């Protein structure tokens, strides 16, 4: 009789153990290493399921209450494992190695890295499908398409130089996400083609192109720094003082492939329409 009871107890323990394990695996627990993906998930009202982020995931501000698992270029692998995620969202570039390691451990991983506006729209739909927010995703994409189509055309299309890094000096091509935003806003990128979307450039080429507007997207670089560069005093943008740094345009609005890019385009157009 005792042996029979013991068997029953063991069977019950196995059943509840299996059910408990299934509950853990079915729970939505997201680790997000990309700030733009974090923004999109929050827009879909999925923030409560985010358990870990990188330090760059700073918008919306309540995300800063989540556990930090490193920064974009250096992620703590152990912290991710301890969070027991049901899904990890990674970006491209240096995070490819992380994604491969996670996959080896059978941890569901999705790479989201949008190179263009159209890819961003596709990524929004994809994220919506992955977190079961399909209807919300379709609404956001439709709204964005309407917003993009309604962006006003400019009478003048100023020549624009956008600098994303200063050591070495780097800019963007028209095929890049940032380059597409410049064109969408009505500007003419002085580097329509480059070896890569985001590429090192020769300072002499900037002088030859003579931009009317300069936009700086990284900390530590100001209009004064630009004015003091050798030979750049001849630029129209320098002469007219039309140099804009991160204090005038929030770089996150134009560097991140998220729905806030609409705000970025509007900020750029304000700059284009401004006469100093």
Descriptive report:
- Strand 4 and strand 5 form a beta hairpin.
- Helix 5 (117-130) runs antiparallel to helix 6 and helix 7 (177-185) crosses helix 12.
- Helices cover 44% and strands 15% of the residues.
- It has helices at 2-26, 35-43, 77-82, 96-104, 117-130, 134-149, 177-185, 203-209, 223-227, 236-239, 252-255, 261-273; strands spanning 30-32, 50-53, 67-68, 70-71, 74-75, 87-90, 109-111, 159-163, 165-166, 169-172, 188-189, 198-200, 213-216, 243-244.
- It has a 5-stranded parallel β-sheet, sandwiched between helices. The chain has a 4-stranded parallel β-sheet with strand order 11-8-13-14. Strands 9-10-12 form a 3-stranded antiparallel β-sheet, with no helix packed on it.
- The protein has 12 helices and 14 strands.
- The chain has 276 residues and is an alpha/beta fold.
- It is globular, with a radius of gyration of 24 Å.
Short description:
44% of the residues lie in helices and 15% in strands.
Number of strands: 14
Could you give the order of the helices and strands?
Answer: HEHEEEEHEHEHHEEEHEEHEHHEHH
User: Outline, from the CA principal axes?
Assistant: globular
Q: Cα distance, first to last residue? A: 94 Å
Rg over C-alpha atoms, rounded to the nearest angstrom: 24 Å
Give the structural class: alpha/beta
